[in-house]
Design goal:
alpha+beta, five-stranded mixed beta sheet, 4 domains, 23 strands
Length: about 525
């Protein structure tokens, strides 16, 4: 779609409120900043986005298992993961107006304020974007929501609402591995609520305090284990076929690129064309200390290009941290690895250890730890490494809404101009799949046949019944809801069983039988 027909955030939020996609939480009491409720259409869109992700990531594969863990977990989990000590944003406060804001967002806030009265004074390089006052030095502010478990409000009973879903996957890794009958390489996926006490939630549902995540932790062998088993590690320089079956001899960078490509395929499938997003490969100084690589898939929202989801190669950091803090081994036993190591003589093993030590030391790691790691490999044991594709449901919904929104200028046969507002959702995620209209609502035969079609389709997909107003007005209502197909039952339908199917994007109308329509609909809904 053309850029001039893209929505502004104000236009989009107005449509979402009017059509029942998104409401401000607790609106009758003035609202709660950073919290949003999803209305009839929004809840269906959200459900469809999550189901599409689950189908693509879990049910559509043989090497991924699912998990649904609790929101509140043992606080030691957050100590082990580093969230308790380091999960913080740099915050600063204005000494004049007392507004609290993230210091890394001051420039963006200032840009937003350009439409408003300019700050009274500049003072220094850093000043309040609201009033021009002097700012305090940035201080860390932990983003986790605290709560109390049990009847006594005591420090010993302090717990936290999870700021991400990933850590539950790591904490349950051994249980899932033993009960799912999976073996490395394989993944564990989870969707669910997360909470971050954002000081300045902004840009509609893009940055909220309560949101949902869709995360996969895909566990892989360390490259050193792959080398023992296959004699070499396949790298991107080998030009592996990422569209074909996965291969056990892939190294971590190939697995990482593979999951980048898988995420792009998913985004295409749910309605975001490749040209509408970009891959941003984080620079070495931008990476988390444990990450070997991270790609942000970014989308051009009305408020600028922002991260839609990220795919990180997290090494063995998470499982190793939980092994250290819990005292419970997070190693796996890999019998094919042990059998491959048995075929190595002492000289080969010695050379292998020396090679690994040199590599680890070059990356600032300990030579003695490298030796211990190698000795464990020779016994078929290691802590798996992980590739983590992590996406936000709400951010993806916002991107799909932005992408789908269009104001289309129409001219009728008499030259009269009109503007059609339409949401061009992929049928896979559209909140309503089909709308059913009897052409004349008082015609008993038309009404009966339309009801029969409605009832049959209702058992398969979400269907809307509408008899209110002229047929053109009904079409426009469904265009704003993003409904891909409208079925109109008329007198010919009563006579021969066919009905008119109006396609949303082209507005073309075709007569079809019920079986013909089902075949077309299922083709469009299939991944």
């Amino acid at each position: 779609m053309s850029e001039e027909n893209k929505s502004s955030l104000d236009q989009l939020s107005a449509l979402c409120k009017r059509r029942g996609f998104i409401y401000h939480s607790s609106e009758i009491y003035g609202g709660m900043p950073g919290f949003w409720d999803y209305g009839p259409l929004g809840s269906e869109l959200k459900k469809n986005v999550k189901e599409a992700w689950w189908q693509f990531t879990v049910r559509g594969r043989e090497d991924v298992a699912g998990l649904d863990a609790t929101i509140i977990m043992h606080p030691k989990i957050w100590k082990a993961s580093g969230h308790l000590d380091t999960f913080a944003d740099p915050m600063t406060m204005c000494k004049e107006c007392k507004k609290l804001m993230r210091s890394d967002q001051i420039k963006d806030i200032y840009e937003d304020q350009k439409k408003k009265p300019q700050p009274k004074i500049a003072g220094s390089d850093f000043f309040c974007p609201y009033c021009g006052g002097e700012l305090t030095e940035p201080k860390p502010f932990n983003l986790m929501f605290k709560t109390v478990v049990g009847p006594i409000e005591d420090a010993a009973n302090t717990a936290y609402l999870r700021p991400e879903t990933a850590q539950a996957i790591f904490a349950q890794f051994q249980n899932v591995t033993s009960t799912s009958r999976q073996s490395v390489p394989y993944g564990i996926a989870q969707m669910g609520k997360s909470f971050r006490n954002e000081v300045t939630p902004r840009n509609y549902i893009f940055r909220s305090r309560e949101f949902e995540q869709m995360e996969l932790e895909f566990f892989i062998r360390p490259d050193e284990a792959v080398e023992i088993m296959y004699g070499k590690v396949v790298t991107l320089a080998d030009n592996p076929n990422l569209d074909g079956p996965v291969q056990d001899d892939w190294g971590w960078e190939v697995w990482h690129k593979y999951w980048v490509e898988q995420r792009k395929k998913f985004l295409n499938a749910v309605g975001l064309p490749t040209e509408r997003f970009v891959e941003y490969w984080q620079k070495p100084d931008e990476l988390a200390h444990y990450a070997r690589a991270c790609v942000d898939i970014e989308y051009d929202f009305p408020f600028g290009r922002q991260e839609l989801e990220g795919i990180a190669a997290r090494s063995d950091f998470d499982l190793s941290q939980h092994q250290k803090h819990s005292g419970q081994s997070q190693m796996v036993f890999d019998d094919p690895l042990k059998q491959a190591a048995k075929k190595m003589d002492d000289a080969a093993k010695k050379a292998f250890v020396e090679k690994v030590q040199a590599d680890w030391v070059s990356r600032g790691k300990d030579a003695l730890e490298a030796e211990k790691f190698c000795l464990a490999l020779f016994e078929g044991k290691y802590v798996p490494h992980v590739i983590e594709p992590s996406a936000g449901v709400d951010r993806l919904m916002l991107a799909l809404l932005c992408e789908a929104y269009e104001e289309e200028k129409l001219v009728d046969e008499k030259g009269k101009e009109d503007i059609r507002t339409v949401l061009r959702f992929s049928p896979k995620v559209a909140p309503i799949k089909v709308a059913i209209f009897p052409l004349i609502k008082k015609d008993e035969a038309q009404d009966k046949l339309a009801r029969e079609i409605f009832t049959k389709l209702q058992k398969k997909v979400n269907v809307m019944w509408d008899v209110s107003g002229a047929i053109g007005r009904r079409y426009r209502r469904q265009d704003e809801a993003g409904t891909p197909w409208c079925i109109t039952v008329d007198q010919q339908s009563v006579e021969d069983g066919t009905f008119t199917v109006r396609e949303r994007d082209s507005m073309e109308q075709k007569r079809m039988t019920y079986s013909q329509f089902l075949e077309m609909m299922y083709d469009a809904l299939e991944f």
